[in-house]
Amino acid sequence: MRRSWPVLFATIIFLCGTALAAGPAAAAGGPSGAMVLPGGPAGRMTGLPQQGPADVTAQTVVASTNWAGYAATGTGGQFTSVSASWVQSAATCSNGDQYSAFWVGLDGYSSSTVEQTGTEVDCAGRTAGYTAWYELYPSYPVYFKSPVRPGDNFTGSVTYSGALFTIKLTDNTAGWNQTYTQPLASAVRSSAEVIAEAPSSGGGGVLPLTNFGTVNFTGATVNGTTGLCHASGVTEITMPSVSVSSLACPGNTFSVGYTGGGGGWPPWPWF
């Protein structure tokens, strides 16, 4: 994503129980005035040349600066859909600004586009703000006006058909959903992923990570009915300040837990 709502504004939405709006909202600045991108490609991966699906699919565990979770990887045109569910965890906010995002998407592992949707929890001091969004990176993210609350169960999916991407996010607890269909001609469709992310700044650095506790992803599938456990080129992705559990099969479930630290890369601020 390109820019996030001010956390204070998101918190007002949360506290007031704003009614479901008809459409998305324009992106704005982060809680400290920083540009926030809770989407986009994976950051630098340890030991990988950062280019070419043949290189990255040879690995089973890689370290990234901003992604944690699992990806199915392959060649261009191989992936047509991804879906998973998760419960939005509650953030523990202390001092300063922190950021975190949870999403499903196609591309971004070994390509320069990402088609994705998910939720986000950011901290401004001791105040947490919860939002939801979709993004066709490198375009800016689009934030939904629908309320997001900790404890809500979400299901996200991205599907490619007839040169169009259909992106859908459903709050199974609150009963709302947002669906958008758009083209992205430059998409390679060489990966599908389910990710917890440390968002990036406009300058390219990774921002400090929110203490989000633990997020459990369930029912992860690719290409319609194939469970992530049985997808091609399944790769575990780790990043600083979190732990990633083993992928449980059957069930196609795993968890990402905050372990502390949460410092950005390079350290924030990034000028």
- Our estimate of the beta-strand percent is 35-45%
Which bin fits the share of residues in helices? Answer: under 10%
CATH class: Mainly Beta
The general outline is globular
Give the overall pLDDT as a whole number.
Answer: 82
The assigned structural class equals mainly beta
Rg, Cα atoms, Å: 17 Å
- How many helix segments? 2
Task: Tell me the major beta sheet.
Answer: 10 strands, mixed
Report on the structure:
The protein is globular. The protein contains two helices and 20 strands. The protein has a single domain (7-258), classed as Jelly Rolls. The relative contact order is 0.24. The chain has helices at 7-16, 53-56, and strands at residues 24-25, 36-37, 61-63, 67-73, 81-87, 97-98, 101-106, 114-124, 127-137, 142-144, 153-161, 164-171, 176-182, 191-197, 200-201, 214-222, 226-227, 234-238, 242-244, 254-258. Strand 12 (164-171) and strand 13 form a beta hairpin. The model is unreliable at 1-34, 47-59 and 263-271 (pLDDT under 50). The longest helix has 10 residues, at 7-16. Strands 1, 3, 4, 6, 7, 8, 9, 10, 14 and 18 form a ten-stranded mixed beta sheet that branches. Strands 5, 11, 12, 13, 16, 17, 19 and 20 form an eight-stranded antiparallel beta sheet that branches. The protein has 271 residues and is mostly beta strands.
